[in-house]
DNA sequence: TTTTAAACTTGACAGTGATAAGATTAAGAG
DNA sequence: CTCTTAATCTTATCACTGTCAAGTTTAAAA
């Protein structure tokens, strides 16, 4: 019958994890610091030992997701053998990530909290695209615009796919592939 | 010295307008029904005569913006003479609308409230694109995917442009034009 | 002119973010 | 091993929020 110890031991991490699970299930607007505290079996003020305020918690939770997202992309990049397919594969993975976690898309991009310069997925994406363009013989001057166009499309499709009714979920990969391939870079 | 009448007379409309102005200035998270009531010089419970609850207010406010947005797009369509340029011009107008009102983008798409099937800008966009594709000789089977690709790009760029640091604001039109033209439909 | 229903106010409730003051205890210093 | 200290957590409280019930005012219909 282990009595609950006064000190939690791993509260910060549990707050982040349970918080994200809660957001995934009920959406951001339902999340409150007090509910979160209760879910973790701790008093309502306890979270404030680890986060300055709710905003700070949300920012750190976003970082947490962003890291997962970055890892997902990195794994994808590592798994692609045929380098010619990397743009398509990366784009697909990007879109699917948010299709699978629609609330994360809102959570990340809804509040203008994400700054481009400190958004690792963008850096990663930009690097891969740059390399691919180089290999494809795209002229240097055209690269930035083409890259932004591509990113817009991938990012936009991620957002739209979070809207119900846009994508056909039956054969998602094919669907996304078809859309991304519908324009020529 | 006109005494404030007991009945406001035009409260619902003023709530929507002042509410949107408030959102534009301070962001959605700062908005509360009570502040809104105060801004309109009315008691804290008065808004509930016109809106079921806050969610209902937000939905109606979104409809309100969406109408403005739709009108903007319609004016744009009407103003384009060279029909070959209509895709580009419409895309530009789409992006610029949200560049000019970044908070609106978040407001509209942050909460998954917008449903594709009842989102007039999409219908409008789809019609125009369909017609343009027909004129361009795009095969019927390819149209849906191309249209989604295009819309993703335009919509995505709108979202990204709300992130500071993505677009060069000095010559915005040229910038957007360059990006949208960087891929071939 | 009377009636009625819509538009508004007042006053209340539970839930929220946040802080101050105090209790507990893990971990390092001597 | 003891003492100290600082991190962690609780309790109590504040101002503010969404929302509703009950009552007030008034425009407009009967």
Could you explain the architecture of this structure?
2 copies of one chain form a homodimer. By secondary structure, chain A is mostly helical. The first copy, chain A, has 8 helices and no strands. The model of chain A has no long low-confidence stretch (mean pLDDT 91). Chains A and B meet through helix 5, helix 7 and helix 8 of A and helix 5, helix 7 and helix 8 of B. The structure holds a DNA duplex (30 and 30 nucleotides).
Tally of strands of chain A = 0
Give the structural class of chain A. mainly alpha
What portion of residues of chain A belong to β-strands? under 5%
Shape of chain A: elongated
**Biggest sheet character of chain A:** none
The quaternary state of the protein chains shown equals homodimer
Poorly predicted runs of chain A: none
Distance linking N and C termini of chain A: 64 Å
Number of continuous helical runs of chain A = 8
Largest interface: A-B, 42 and 42 residues
Radius of gyration of chain A, rounded?
Answer: 20 Å
What order do the helices and strands of chain A follow? HHHHHHHH
Residues in helices of chain A, as a percent range? 55-70%
Give the overall pLDDT of chain A as a whole number.
Answer: 91
């Amino acid at each position: 019958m282990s009595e609950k110890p006064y000190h939690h031991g791993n509260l910060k991490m549990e707050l982040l994890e349970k918080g994200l699970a809660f957001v995934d299930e009920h959406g951001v607007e339902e999340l409150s610091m007090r509910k979160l505290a209760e879910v973790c079996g701790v008093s309502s003020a306890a979270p404030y030992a680890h986060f300055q305020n709710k905003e700070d918690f949300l920012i750190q939770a976003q970082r947490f997701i962003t890291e997962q997202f970055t890892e997902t992309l990195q794994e994808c990049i590592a798994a692609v053998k045929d380098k010619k397919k990397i743009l398509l594969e990366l784009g697909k993975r990007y879109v699917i990530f948010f299709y699978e976690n629609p609330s994360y898309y809102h959570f990340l991009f809804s509040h203008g909290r994400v700054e481009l310069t400190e958004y690792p997925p963008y850096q990663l994406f930009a690097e891969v695209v740059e390399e691919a363009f180089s290999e494809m013989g795209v002229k240097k001057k055209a690269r930035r615009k083409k890259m932004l166009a591509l990113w817009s499309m991938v990012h936009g499709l991620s957002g739209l796919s979070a809207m119900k009714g846009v994508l056909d979920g039956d054969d998602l990969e094919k669907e996304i592939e078809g859309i991304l391939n519908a324009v020529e870079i």
